[in-house]
Write a structure and sequence with these properties.
The protein is mostly helical and 153 residues long. Among the domains are: 59 residues, Arc Repressor Mutant, subunit A (Orthogonal Bundle), CATH 1.10.10; 47 residues, no CATH class. 26% of the residues lie in helices and 4% in strands. The protein has four helices and three strands; from the N terminus they run αααβββα. A hairpin with a 6-residue loop joins strand 2 and strand 3. Helix 2 packs across helix 3. The radius of gyration is 35 Å and the shape is elongated. It starts with 7 loop residues before the first helix and ends with a helix. The mean pLDDT is 79.
């Protein structure tokens, strides 16, 4: 349907059918050969009030929004996360293997250890040739033990 369907004459006829003859949206749609939604849209755009008072008599201007009621903010008690989850001490630094040179992510293969070294750029990995990714072992034996025991040796 083109934007010019609702000409001034049709809007005037729609207004007459709706306000004087008390037609419903379905009846207007049948008369004009359009959908009920098209009629309701025309009512809304042109400020036509239906017989059941479906639309306001004073439609708000386009772009103006009604003010929302402000909600009262609830005060939380205590920390947002459980105290057991808060770290009690600084994380322990896992020593780097002295016999292996760290590698970048581009140098990783299925046989290299994928244990991350450091937390910032450059992102490096252990790189020891003792892992087997195809067998489900992503780390060298040293870092595998650290991963299982959590760094407590």
């Amino acid at each position: 349907m083109s934007a010019k369907f609702w000409t001034d004459e049709r809007v005037t006829e729609l207004r007459h059918l709706t306000e004087v003859e008390k037609f419903t949206a379905k009846q207007c749609a049948t008369k004009f050969g359009v959908t009920r939604s098209a009629v309701i849209g025309a009512w809304s755009r042109n400020g036509i009030k239906s017989k059941n008072g479906m639309l306001d008599t004073h439609p708000r201007p386009i772009g103006e929004r009604p003010k929302r009621a402000k909600r009262e903010k609830k005060q939380r008690e205590g920390p947002r996360i459980l105290p057991k989850l808060l770290p009690t001490s600084a994380p322990r630094e896992i020593p780097i293997r002295a016999d292996v040179k760290p590698i970048s992510i581009l140098e990783l293969t299925n046989a290299t250890c994928r244990w991350p070294i450091g937390e910032r750029y450059p992102y490096l990995f252990c790189g020891a040739l003792e892992a087997d990714l195809e067998a489900g072992v992503p780390y060298c034996p040293y870092h595998f033990v650290v991963a299982i025991k959590g760094g407590d040796e």
